[in-house]
Amino acid sequence: MTKKEKLLTPQNDFIFKKIFAKEENKDMLKEFLEEVLEIKIYKLDAVEEAQMDKTLEENKGSRIDIQSEVNDNIVINIEMQISNEHNITSRSAFSVSGLLHNNLNKGQDYADAKISIVICILSFNIFKDGDYIVSASLRRDDTHKQVSDKIKIYYIQLPKFIKQKDKKRKKLAQWLYFISQEDKEELEMAVKENVKIAEAQKQYEELISDEGIQYQIFMREKTKADIKLAQEAAYQEGQEKGEEKGMEKGEEKAKNTIAKKLLEEGLSIEKISSITNLSKEEIEKLKNS
């Protein structure tokens, strides 16, 4: 499956959020999380989109796809990655540390901090050996005994999953067939056997038939590409001038330029915010200027 084809599957974070972050679809998210974490979830609070706190964001921006609180003592981020930028292990370490930091209240004892978990669903493989689903935690180098249960990262490698065909964890496999959309025969079986998968598939097909949704998805990808080019140009210019933070300047400039073009095309502020990740306030300023 090409990258362009993956953009119109639930592997795309935009589509994934449209399905799993809806309040009325909380039972879908609950079942998926139970199967990944292998725990019973009694309470689930889902947040459609969250941000790292401002101090972390200024150092290294990181948009969170879905943040959920489970059983009052676990906070989870689910992140989708279609392109392999060869930084997922570093990015996930940053995400889980930011999650732990953000959910520790002022004056709260560290021992009482909520367990922070990041689940990375990947359209590529990062480990040559092992299973398609790999978990990592903080452990000693010598004995490999756990040092703390407060952080954990799960990596779900979809290509390896499709090849291995997991028969032991049936419900998890059903959800991964839905997310990948690659094995049509297995997906059809999952739809027949699991009513939640059937409803998710129905909503997914309605989403991708919407031309407005398709436009937003491809504009978001174009924005990412334009931002990358602008960052590289600004970085090169900054290097020549001896300036710092060229990449950040390039990103800001690219986002503003794209937002202005979309405003001229008559797109709503909400859609432009979704495409560029600029805040509504920032877009309002651009509109008024």
Describe it for me?
The protein has 289 residues and is of the alpha/beta class. It has 2 domains: 3-209; 212-288, no CATH class. It contains 13 helices and 8 strands. The chain has helices spanning 3-6, 13-20, 26-37, 54-59, 88-102, 158-164, 170-180, 184-193, 195-208, 211-241, 246-264, 269-276, 280-288, and strands at residues 44-47, 50-51, 63-64, 66-70, 74-81, 115-122, 133-139, 146-157. The strands form 2 sheets. A 6-stranded mixed beta sheet has the order 1-4-5-6-8-7, sandwiched between helices. Strand 4 and strand 5 form a beta hairpin. Helix 10 runs antiparallel to helix 11 (246-264) and helix 11 runs antiparallel to helix 12. The termini are far apart. The relative contact order is 0.10.
Assign a percent range to the helix content.
Answer: 40-55%
Largest sheet, in brief, is:
6 strands, mixed
**SSE order:** HHHEEHEEEHEEEHHHHHHHH
**Secondary structure tally, helices:** 13
Portion of residues in beta strands equals: 15-25%
Q: Tell me the radius of gyration.
A: 20 Å
